[in-house]
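Q: Predict the assembly, please.
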Amino acid sequence: MASLRDIKNRITSTKKTSQITKAMEMVSASKLSRAEDNAKSFNPYMNKIQEVVASIATGAKDASHPMLSTRPVKKTAYLVITSDRGLAGAYNSNVIRSAMNAINSRHSSKDEYVILAVGRVGRDFFAKRGMNIIDSIIGLPDQPSFADIKEITGKAVGMYADEAFDELYMYYNHFVSAISQEVTEKKVLPLTDVAAETGGMTSYEFEPSPEAILEVLLPQYAESLIYGALLDGKASEHAARMTAMKSATDNAKELIDSLSLSYNRARQAAITQEITEIVGGAAALED
Amino acid sequence: MKTVNVNIVTPDGPVYESAVEMVSTKAQSGELGILAGHIPMVAPLEIGAVRLKKEGRTDLVAVTGGFLEVRPEQVTILAQAAEPATEIDIDRAKEARQRAESLLQAKQDNVDFKRAELALRRAMNRIDVYENRM
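A: Predicted assembly structure:
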């Protein structure tokens, strides 16, 4: 049986750990609410750009653009959004597993796909397996602004235009609620389903021409799709971390309870033993 | 005078919202002035200033990478970045200009000239807008 001091030490260290996890939980909770606000303020932009793209794509049928048409797929790109740090429960492993499953079932050789990694965990994972990472971004702030991710979105869209790859899939955790996040796969490029998401139609005058506008608009649209996923992923990350830290705190509390129980038992046993010894000693003297 | 609602929206949130008498700005095909009742139109914008005239004064907003969507009673400007003149950090803009200029002058092979030039144009635009804000 562990000595009194051992148990005492374990209780103290578990208490310290639970203080840290508790603090991390609260930090993540406040970051989560900020991330939700960010996602909310991004919505008007996304809705509007979707509306305009849809009405141009349907209104001007003859206007074509490389981003709208499917071409034979020689190379696929996967944009995988993970976090920089761990301690977020199954957040990273879920998204990586689902990306790996897709890659393994679709491709037989490493030449058929490339990876764009967001977040240190994902980058390290794919690098370790010798996969072809063409770009990675790490150290994203917790509340990324559009300027922070412009580089990777611009690059991804530019590479598609240069035919470095022929389709682009995105893997990220979609934020459903604070306790539930869903791994989502989304095909970003080519933009095949824009026309399907149409709402109210307006027939526009195009200045100078539909093609010229698509030229400007579609890269922006694709970039904002990626940005939206990043914001979504960030919110999920904070939510996942919050839940993970909450259960860590709960577990620590349980551990402390059971440790204090055995501490008290051991203490009581020691006292009883002492009394027995004293009584025994006194009895021996009386004779 | 009849007014038209103007919204300037960026990925980081709405930047400007107001009813104005006239919107004028520079599109890629030339200068544009828009009054209430304009036919629906879409046009990509240059890096530049959007001038919003109302009640005898003019609000200025610096806009980058945007386009303009016009409806008879609603004008929406979607931009990757937009700042009202009153919120521009002039020191940061000047710093950005200097950085871009020195990049352009360095004439090194590894410098992405197109990007440096765009950065310079954005910085100059913000400085211009700031200086004409009254």
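Chain B has two domains: 4-86, 89-131. Chain B has a mean pLDDT of 82.
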